[in-house]
Amino acid sequence: MKYMVDAMLYGLAKELRELGIECETASKLIQGNEDSSVRIPDPDIVEYLLKAKGEVCLITLDSELAQYCAKFNIPCIRVQDLVIKHISEQASQAKNTPSATN
């Protein structure tokens, strides 16, 4: 699986590449450069992902873009969902762990 990040997650793409994971920015994949100052409209991103036929997973902070992906069965990871899941799991573990008493 290849990964695409939106403009807000440029740093994540770099970190993933350093780990050997194939990940590029939407700018790089759609425009052919890393210039994130040029906004790529959501429909252009969705069109690119549809043409990729499930071979590219979007990683995004954009809830509306994630909804478009869900509507068209495009692989997508919404960062907020991962954060919520992590915090919920941590809170659940804290509730189930007996407190240390002095």
Strand order of the largest sheet: 2-1-3-4
CATH T-level topology: Rossmann fold
Backbone shape? elongated
Cα-based radius of gyration, to the nearest Å: 17 Å
Q: What is the level 1 CATH name?
A: Alpha Beta
Question: Share of helix among residues?
Answer: 40-55%
Report on this model:
This protein is an alpha/beta fold. The protein has one domain (2-96): 3-Layer(aba) Sandwich (Rossmann fold). The chain is 51% helix and 15% strand. The chain has five helices and four strands; from the N terminus they run βαβααβαβα. The chain has a four-stranded parallel beta sheet, with helices on both faces. Helix 1 links the parallel strand 1 and strand 2. The protein is elongated and about 55 Å long. The model has no long low-confidence stretch (mean pLDDT 94).
